[in-house]
């Protein structure tokens, strides 16, 4: 039976140490890290995530604000809000919650956020700096994934890592981070022929396909560390991941559950990025 990686517990422990660092930073500088989240529209899941971000930011000692805008907000109006936040001295981190309404070009908005306040790590300058190993804001979900892998105590250097999925938000950045940790990295995707032959090589398998219970035990190397980034619905409309947990738990060495795996780490890493940004903005 593989070990379950308890993301909820690791996120809570990590939040305690970030809170202590924020306390020390504020005591030394008199500055409270500031985070503003912009939420456009009524997407139910986004509302829950944004409320959780606000609650956890406040608990960590961050000055947290949420700007809620109507679903009918135009792209120009949203860009003007981002511009104001770029100029606001007390705001160290800006996050525009995704998805945005279809009437708004998300890339255009993300590109307008100052790269120095881009705590999501989605701005092309941060993406580029991450790729060439320079100082960058690291996207929160990929950063959390690396922490979860490290929590197993296994070394990453020299291991075969396979990432299934090539999105800009998870697949590509997590591959970059694994490469920085000296893993041998393969990115597989929907056009990969004989996926199981590729995933079976993986000592570390990160799955971000968006397909419910897509990865079965036949895809795994016995003992592998398996990180499930999926947030899908099963046949009973229950939240599940891209990995068939019940099928894989006896073959994997370590496996993240859904819920309670990668998701909780995303918000923790956002708090850390906000602290890092406040430190960089404060001399
Ligand atoms: N600007 C951004 N937008 C979005 C991001 C992001 O990183 N930046 N990620 C997701 C949503 N998200 C945070 O914003 C997020 C998703 C899920 C979780 C989480 O803790 N999930 C729980 C389950 C929750 C449930 O029951 O529905 C879990 O996995 O245990 C946290 C944050 C898209 N948008």
TrEMBL record:
Domain Tetrahydrofolate dehydrogenase/cyclohydrolase NAD(P)-binding residues, every copy: 139-281
Pathway named in the protein's UniProt entry: One-carbon metabolism; tetrahydrofolate interconversion
Protein function: Catalyzes the oxidation of 5,10-methylenetetrahydrofolate to 5,10-methenyltetrahydrofolate and then the hydrolysis of 5,10-methenyltetrahydrofolate to 10-formyltetrahydrofolate.
Subunit structure, as described in the record: Homodimer.
Gene name as annotated: folD
GO MF annotation terms: methenyltetrahydrofolate cyclohydrolase activity; methylenetetrahydrofolate dehydrogenase (NADP+) activity
Binding site for NADP(+): 165-167
Keywords tagged on the record: Amino-acid biosynthesis, Histidine biosynthesis, Hydrolase, Methionine biosynthesis, Multifunctional enzyme, NADP, One-carbon metabolism, Oxidoreductase, Purine biosynthesis
One record GO biological process: purine nucleotide biosynthetic process
Reaction(s) this enzyme catalyzes, per UniProt: (6R)-5,10-methenyltetrahydrofolate + H2O = (6R)-10-formyltetrahydrofolate + H(+); (6R)-5,10-methylene-5,6,7,8-tetrahydrofolate + NADP(+) = (6R)-5,10-methenyltetrahydrofolate + NADPH
EC number: 1.5.1.5, 3.5.4.9
InterPro entries the record matches: Aminoacid_DH-like_N_sf, NAD(P)-bd_dom_sf, THF_DH/CycHdrlase, THF_DH/CycHdrlase_cat_dom, THF_DH/CycHdrlase_CS, THF_DH/CycHdrlase_NAD-bd_dom
Species for this entry: Brochothrix campestris FSL F6-1037
GO CC, one annotated term: cytosol
Pfam family, one: THF_DHG_CYH
Protein name, UniProt field: Bifunctional protein FolD
Tetrahydrofolate dehydrogenase/cyclohydrolase catalytic domain location: 5-120
UniProt family annotation: Belongs to the tetrahydrofolate dehydrogenase/cyclohydrolase family.
